[in-house]
Amino acid sequence: MNCEECNNEGSMLIPDYQHDVMMRVQCVNCLAWANTKRELSISMSKVLIGMTQSRMAKLLSDTIIELMDKENSPDFERLFSLVATKNKDSLVSLLQVMA
Fold it and tell me: d(Cα 49, Cα 44) in Å, to the nearest integer?
């Protein structure tokens, strides 16, 4: 989401005329969007919890490959080596970095 009020900074400078200073306040639109994303994530996890492990693994691997393919310089060799060594923690870390 592109916030038009704070330009995706998450906060705005508001003048406080009583103390003659500028106050930094959190953007209400960004807070509302973050809350909506969190609620959607919780709802989606409740729906997806019924999926089989193999189907979930296939979905996750497809997502990792698509995200990596969209990068400017995808490093598929690194992905191949992580799969060959069966390093689950590094694969999850890679997904967290890419997302």
Answer: 9
Q: Which domain holds residue 14?
A: 1-50
- The pLDDT, as a whole number, for residue 23 is 92
What pLDDT is recorded for position 1? Answer: 67
Phi, psi dihedrals of residue 10, rounded to the nearest 5°: 90, -10
14 within 8 A of 22, measured Cβ to Cβ = yes
Based on the domain organization, do 99 and 88 belong to the same domain?
yes
Distances (CA, A) of 74 to 4, 56, 71, 82: 32, 23, 5, 14
The verdict on 2 and 45 lying in the same domain is yes
Beta bridge partners of 15: 22
31 touches 15 (CB < 8 A): no
Low-confidence ranges of the chain (pLDDT < 70): 1
